[in-house]
Amino acid sequence: GGTAGIIAKTAVAPVERIRILAQTGESRLGTMGTLTKIVKDEGFLGLWRGNVANCLRVFPAKAVLFYSNDMWKSKFKFILKAKDLPPGVGFISGSLAGMTASFATYPLDFARTRLSGTFASKFGEVGIWPVMFKTIQKEGITGLYKGIGPTLFGALPYEGIKFGCYEILGNAILKRKGQAQTSILDQFLCGAVAGTISGFVMYPNDTVRKILQMQERDGKSNFNGALDCYVRTFRNEGLSRFYRGVVPYLSRMIPNSAIQFGIYESFKQWYQRS
User: Fold this and answer.
1) pLDDT per residue over 9-61, tens digit each?
2) What is the pTM of this model?
3) Which residues fall within 8 angstroms of residue 256, CB to CB, at 6 or more apart?
4) How far apart (Å, rounded) are the C-alpha atoms in residues 43 and 50?
5) N or C: which end of the chain has fewer CB within 10 A?
6) How far apart are CA 234 and CA 199, in angstroms?
7) For residues 180 and 174, what is the distance between their CA atoms, to the nearest angstrom?
8) Measured torsion, CA atoms of residues 88, 93, 97, 99, in degrees rounded to the nearest 10
9) What is the dihedral of CA 149, 260, 249, 148, to 10 degrees?
């Protein structure tokens, strides 16, 4: 799960960087305008700014996520004494796994947002540890957990919807084709659809999370928690503000989820055969 996550995240990192800059409000230049500014100001490698932190987060996060999901599914099979679980159980196991993984790796996610969510010329930090040390110095250890509320709240339905949809789609394909296992192409397709659905539904929550993570970096704190951020952002900028950057987000979510699920299922099948 961790290897699959790193490959997927690195492949779509440039799109993710553009999306985060739009989501945090640092850039309103559009996709191509933001891309041009990054390359001009930071060079080609600037498109991967924050990717190291993301990969350090993704490896344990995705490993814990996929392992926990399989573990919870096994527990539910034992409790229900059933070989095949109802679709709703996939939602529950995915939700529990998502919360576990998000909490365990949140400081790295915070550092990634601080690195990716602004242009390098605005702040001097160029690495994970300088960002984290400076945050602790200015905001205390709790500063590394800014935005943890909407993160845990969002992990429940996000991973639940994703794993639930993946399981439903996979079972539907198996019944239609009469096969014992889904093909690699089916796994990529199911992963892409499941990730897109969950990502779009939960995107406003991710926007609030990113806004809160960027607070106090410039010495200002604009919102008093997630609920205040939701209310005031909607009042001042409308519903569209919550979906700023959603197009590049979905364009990277499709291959990202497809690669994650496809590679993970392939590794798992290979391991079971060996």
Assistant:
1) 788 888 888 888 888 777 778 788 888 888 888 888 888 887 877 777 777 77
2) 0.63
3) 8, 9, 11, 12, 195
4) 14
5) C
6) 20
7) 7
8) 50
9) 10
